[in-house]
């Protein structure tokens, strides 16, 4: 049973607009590169799990897309069966997708289809600076599923959605170019379905990074409040992975293209006095929390959707989705606990206490997501949200393993 709360009444809805014919040239080029990448979750009742990809190389016979590993793998970490890709063009016909390369760290994948794409993007090794105008584009889960009505068994039919799939543009700014594998922090609103999409310069359309997750410690309950803070994998990390596929890409060589120093440093590797085992576990812990935060946000978002009187009749229809989200959230909590145990066994000291507090707060929120809502539960929800935010911020402030 989902909690019913208005705390996140608008969370994870991309605050943008569809990319349309009147958009600028760079927006049109980004749109031409986009695709929805997904796989069936239940071929009878439910739907799909999906994210976004963008085309970086194309020929008459084949095109190659960058996305996240968690977009192309199921909740057990295995490559998803029957993976498909729908290009953002008319007709929006489903294509069989093949994963050429994927990795948990960095959370990236290269996907190929036997068809050309309408356009490719230019990539930049540089890191944007704080305050720079950026945008993300893709297929936010709530808008694509609920508003466009695409979360239904009909999406499993290859030709069911000709002309229906339109990507959403969400503008924003760079909050900081943080050192680390996930280095670009930005405030454009994003939903789970935006995972794997491009983060690009708002003026030129050059892609700086790949949308990946919510930044732990920045947002209430790990999900976007009125101001969203998400993070992207910088191309300084993404390009070596793409080149290893190998896939040839177009690089930005415009003047000023080296803003922000042109690269990133792994903040885990530079942690003072940290052992390699602790740094590895810390990285896994950080990534698991980011994934949990998105799963938790989707659960609360769905609860808010069903709490609206106009949507109450859809409770039975969306129950399988509710169960799938809850199962995924529970699985990620398990990975969070495993990585925490690894940090403990590595001899970490200063990092263990805040990490343990965050695990406890996550576990409490996960339990509440599975509990029936009530008037008293609403007060518990508020207390849990405060506890979780404090624990996430305390964890994010830690800069060393030992």
Topology, please?
Blueprint: E1 17-18, H1 25-33, E2 34-40, E3 48-58, E4 63-67, H2 69-72, E5 84-87, E6 94-96, E7 98-103, E8 108-113, E9 122-123, E10 133-138, H3 141-147, E11 168-177, E12 184-186, E13 198-201, E14 207-214, E15 230-234, H4 235-243, E16 250-251, H5 276-307, H6 315-345, H7 352-369, H8 375-396
Parallel strand pairs: 9-16
Antiparallel strand pairs: 1-11, 2-3, 2-5, 3-4, 4-8, 5-6, 7-8, 10-11, 10-13, 11-12, 12-15, 13-14, 14-15
Helix pairs in contact: 5-6, 5-7, 6-7, 7-8
Which stretches are low in confidence, meaning pLDDT under 50 for 5 or more residues running?
Answer: 1-22, 217-227, 255-266, 374-379
- Provide the helix percentage: 25-40%
Enumerate how many helices there are, as a single number: 8
SSE-based structural type? alpha+beta
Radius of gyration: 20 Å
Number of strands: 16
Tell me the name of the CATH class of the largest domain.
Answer: Mainly Beta
Task: Compute the separation of the termini in Å.
Answer: 41 Å
Could you spell the SSE succession in H and E letters? Answer: EHEEEHEEEEEEHEEEEEHEHHHH
Q: What is the domain total for the residues?
A: 2
User: Looking across the biggest beta sheet, what order are the strands in?
Assistant: 6-5-2-3-4-8-7
| Mean pLDDT over all positions | 75
